[in-house]
Amino acid sequence: MKNIFFKNLFWNSMGQFTNLVIPLIGFPILVRKLGLQSYGEMIIHLLIWQSVCMILDYNYNSLGVQKVLACDGNERRIVSLNLFLSKIYLFSLGIIIFLLASVFYFYNEEKLFIVFGIAYLFGYLMTNQMWFSVNEKFYLLAFINFISKFVFLIGIFAFISDLRSVLMIQALSLLISGFLSVFITKYPREFSISDTMYRDGFLFLKETYPAFSANFSGYILSNVPLYLGPMLLSPSNFGIYSLIDRIVRVFLAVYSAINQVLFRKTLSMVLLGISQLREYILRILVLIVPLYILICGFGILVSIYVSPLLFHVNLKNYLPYFVQLSAWSIFSVVNSILGYHYLQSLQKYREYGNIMAVSLILTILFTYLFGKLYAIGGMVSGMVLSEVIILFILLHIYVTKRGI
Q1: Which pLDDT score, from 0 to 100, does residue 325 have?
Q2: End-to-end Cα separation, the chain, in angstroms
Q3: Is pLDDT of 107 > 70?
Q4: CA torsion, points 151, 152, 154, 159, in degrees to nearest 10?
Q5: DSSP 8-class letter at 234
Q6: Are 256 and 19 in contact (CB under 8 A)?
Q7: Which residue from 246, 256, 262, 309 has the fewest beta carbons nearer than 10 Å?
């Protein structure tokens, strides 16, 4: 059992490492070729695309996996198809949301960008990460990620000259990921049709909506400054913020590399009882949080010294923002462990969803008000303040066992 856990952890980490390192190699080239203003525009496009991808994710990589694993034989094939069909329903909804968001942010932009966005979302849909988790084929997912990101890296060096070419390469890399997933795994062959496939798909969406609401609120929560930034900052200042934000996301990607595998372990700990789960959560906190703080400190130092060479921007001038955003990411990791691992594994979806909804409202309010007054520093301060408030709420629930 331990060997399987560490094998899955290794390959999932390798996949996340590929997602992190290969784009990171091309990251400085993007900033230099596009300039800070166009780079900020690119971030908004990708933010819209990835927000819709969060809708497509719904709860498939956690609760979906759990539902499939609870079945055997032909029933597992039926449930797998039912869940994938419900994902197609979400894809249709996601396209509508994507079009509305694109009109709001980029009404006068090229309509070709919309085509790139739809291609990106289609590639993400076909990748079907749930299949890799259910079948514990993380090594295949790591390979597909590598090919996809390698194409993106080649595109950066060979083809990128403006915003249009960047978005085209992004879309192409996800399409390759989707088609490779179907070709290598041939997962559609494992589907089995049933009379209840449409009803069961909608039932899953309905039953797990509270969990999705919490997760999606958390995602929107972590990106509030990117949504509000174009309305609060000048294009150049938004470009600076986007650059610092992307670097801090690199720190968070290190945590994300092990989070998916850790959650599978968390689900198994629930079966052993509440006390065992609480001890496991405490061990994760003691191990992960100090390690993540060291990663942030090291990452800040490296970024400051290499930024003039790589980005032609001296990030030392923006060190306070860097430290603030890193502090926000630390609180986010703690809240993720106490909320996502603890409350969600106990199926306290509604409670966690309510906490995320309150946090989202506070973050939007604080970020907008402080951003209006103090620009970049104000926006980040608003994010940190809301994360601290949520941390106290989650700690209160953990310590007092309220509602557990």
Answers
A1: 92
A2: 29
A3: no
A4: 120
A5: -
A6: no
A7: 309
What pLDDT score was predicted for residue 237? 86
Dihedral sign for Cα 311, 21, 168, 41, please.
negative
- The length of the chain is 404
What is the per-residue DSSP string for 38-103?
HHHHHHHHHHHHHHHHHHHHTTIIIIIHHHHHT--HHHHHHHHHHHHHHHHHHHHHHHHHHHHHHH
- Residue 103, pLDDT above cutoff 90: no
Asked whether the CA dihedral 289, 290, 291, 296 is positive or negative, the reply is: positive
Q: CB neighbours (10 Å) of residue 147?
A: 15
Spatial contact of 50 and 118, defined as CB atoms under 8 Å apart = no
Q: How far apart are CA 125 and CA 178, in angstroms?
A: 7
Phi, psi (deg, nearest 5) at residue 295:
-60, -45
Please give the Cα distance from 395 to 404 (Å, whole number): 13
pLDDT level of residue 206 (50, 70, 90 thresholds): confident
- Beta-strand (E) ranges in 63-132? none
Nearest to 65 by CA among 344, 397, 387: 344
* Contact criterion met (CB below 8 Å) for 56 and 90: yes
| Under 8 Å between Cβ of 389 and 333 | no
Q: How far are the Cα atoms of 58, 60, 143, 176, 364 from residue 130, in angstroms, in the given order?
A: 11, 6, 16, 18, 32
> Where is pLDDT greater, at 53 or 347?
53
